[in-house]
Amino acid sequence: MKNLPKVREYRSPVWSEPIIMEMGRKGERGICVPEADQEIKSKVGEARSHIPEKMRRKQAPGLPEIAQPQVLRHYLHLSQMCLGMDTNIDAEGTATMKYSPKVNEALARLSEMTEIHPSQDEDTVQGILEIIYRLDLFLREISGMDQFTFQPPGGAMATYTNAIILRAFHAQQGEGAQRDEIITTIFSHPCNAATAATAGFKVITLMPDENGYPDFEALKAATSKRTAGLMITNPEDTGIYNPRIKEFTDLIHKAGGLCFYDQANANGILGITRAREAGFDACHFNLHKTFSSPHGSFGPGCAAYGVREELARYLPKPAVIYDGQQYHLDYDRPDSVGKVREFLGNIPAVLRSYSWIMSLGPEGLLEVARTSVINNNYLTKMLEEIRGTVRYYAPGKYRLEQTRWSWEKLTEETGVSTMDIQRRMVDYGLQSFFMSHHPWIVPEPFTPEFCESYSIGDMKYWCAVLRTISDEAYSDPELVKSSPHRAPIHLVKYEDLDEPDKWAVTWRAYVKKKGKSALERP
Amino acid sequence: MRSPPDQQGTVTVSNKVKNMKKKVGLIINPIAGMGGRVGLKGSDGREILERAMELGAEPEAPKRAVCALRNIVHLKERIELITYPHEMGEDESSECGFVPTVTGSIKSGYTTSEDTKKAAKRMAQAKVDLLLFAGGDGTARDICSVIGCRIPVLGIPAGVKIHSAVFATNPRNAGELAAMYLGDESLRTQFREAEVMDIDEVAFRSDRLSAQLYGYLKIPYKKGVVQCAKAGSRAGEEASVRAIACDVINNMEKDWIYIIGPGTTTRSIMVGLGLRNALLGVDAVCNREILGLDLNESQLLNIIEGRRVKIIVGVIGGQGYIFGRGNQQISPRLIKKIGKKNIIILATMDKIVSLREKSLLVDTGDVEVDRMLAGYVQVVSGLRKRIMLKIK
Prior knowledge:
The structure holds two protein chains of two kinds. By secondary structure, chain A is an alpha/beta fold. Chain A contains 16 helices and twelve strands. Chain B has helices at 15-19, 34-37, 46-54, 61-69, 90-95, 113-125, 137-147, 171-182, 201-205, 237-250, 264-273, 297-304, 332-338, 349-354, 367-373; strands at residues 22-28, 79-83, 101-102, 130-135, 153-157, 189-199, 211-222, 257-260, 283-286, 289-292, 309-313, 321-323, 343-346, 361-362, 375-382, 385-391. In chain B, the strands form four sheets. Chain B has a seven-stranded mixed beta sheet with strand order 10-9-8-11-13-15-16, sandwiched between helices. Chain B has a five-stranded parallel beta sheet with strand order 3-2-1-4-5, with helices on both faces. In chain B, strands 6-7 form a two-stranded antiparallel sheet. The longest helix of chain B is centred in the middle third of the chain and has 14 residues, at 237-250. Strand 3 (202-206) of chain A pairs parallel with strand 16 of chain B, so a sheet runs across the interface.
């Protein structure tokens, strides 16, 4: 790999920024609203009198009192210390971190979108209802399913929706008590097992066979009259194409179960294979992955969950329907599992994805899959040449859009672990790679995924950084193990994450754990 | 701020203790591993050792111990290293830059397992915070026989036979883990009881495997170091074992007899039922009451006569044996009578991941029974959680 680019210098700004709740002082204001004119006052009366008594606060909220420039400075400092999606190469596998074109964001920020209220009468929101309905039609075409809902705000909520729909289906068949087992695989996203368990199912997990495929013989042994269904990510995290998937779904159907296809990340198969032909009864797409709506850090995600006709009556309500002239919100669905999210879900994500699909067309979607698969296999050739890497399973075989790699050899030879390398990447201004879901079947794992929006230059630069870190691991392992050194925060002791007494995820919890000293202002 | 409550298995250290030097014991079994390179399947016994030397075997354990010690030496000002003379630790610690406290006496060049036991006794008397030893299964057994689970121990793998789960994966990892426990990270180290296994070398040399479970040593392990933010927190080993016990207890049926094999995972069922148990033996339970503790094959056969019975067994860490290692009381005859579908196998996810082959092994001594057991089974890995594994 002689032609890799030179690794550039990087150093993050470091602001020792307090928490916003610790900032400001009593009486400080962001905006001072001017006093109303006498004329207005006399006509309208006291502003407070317009708020119903029962809605008035008895006490002021415990918010910081702080001036506008300080607020702006604070949040800009924080943003400078983040490796944002638009400032670096973020090739986190299983997450499909692609570039989201700004034009789609511009649409989502139009007042026609931002200023509508979810409780508005359907007559007044025909435009967005049409977009929801049409995106449903697109996804039917892409997946072969018969109806979609956009209520689930994330992948795990879609798998949960699936689990409760399976439960409802079997109950309706009079087999609710008998069919209490869900089968999944260890390389499927763990939310499949977790949400099935949340919905009350017993969970049976299949391990990979020696070639890295989910073990079909194990599936045979696991399937019985207690099987409610199969919930599987396909391709799994390994990125290996499973040519036998139809045999899996056939086997489950024969036993009376249903099959759910976790397609949160469908980048490698978009326009190439469909859930229906693979024999699935339901599937979901994360619009914030494959369909280019930003992830938004647990914020505005949207998982489109679709089913075959037989299951459509169980979908969350309301459904958006079209009578040939008007779009309606249909609440009259007695078998529906109810709501899994307020209103219709995160609709700006639906709008962005609709716009993204419209801009690409069917050929463009196919090109997305082809490019991302080519990217991944091009990357493979480069990564294989970096000292200490091991590509797990299926030697010589191509992968789809991602690959599970291992630093096992490098760790064995240098003591530097994948977590050390992950942290060291930040010293070069790169988002750390995704390692693996738990448990780590592949030791010292890492899972890159270069979506279609990354250039060959991006991939070469990313590999140049990894090669540099690999060289460092062999020549000066301590440097990597004690990293990051040029990031806003240094080595974090991960073990503390296991100590509920030591962390607080809200200010209220922090104050509770730390006591009054937390409230003392410097 | 109130101090955090003591968590099970977590060491909480007061400031006073923190400022004191920690004591580390070091025992090297200098002859461990010598038989391996020359194909002798172990180094137990004087004759074998002499044959190994004739065949040109060189001491392995000292080199491996040095490799581990190099990863601790940066803490030398903060720890007191207590060791045995010459090749049993003194030489190696000095080579790495330690100034060790040397105790006991040996006949250099002629050390035996008695020396290991005496050394372990002295380390326990000196109240070491951690006992590091370099050796193999035989060494682990010697140490276990003297100190049991009284003090934390960690094995530097150096022997021919490494069937016990008390060893780090390699000498460097042993050093790193020890340094973590001895340094600032001690609060984040947990302990688990790990199996001490050993096989009969005489039988092994004639290619017969006959392994026994000899007990448990308390070993430190890194808590949460394979954590990543996206996956969130995994339940600790303790919690997983309790969840497994909970699943088993919930599914226990009236009037069925449950034969409970040895080990820590199965012990949790007895603890969950509020019953006494034999950690290394086989117990029998019915309707939440003890039918017998530490039973042998014929006692078990008597008890089950004409009854509905299930067998509950754990998995030996690393290797994956469920029968034929440490639970020979559950004989092929018994297994045949009770049937494959009445066998409940327990293993935490951590243990499953640790299996080298990701499959289970049986060695009941009866080929027919081994064949009957082969195939896929559901292993209980948590509350209402099963993992499909293949019995080879």
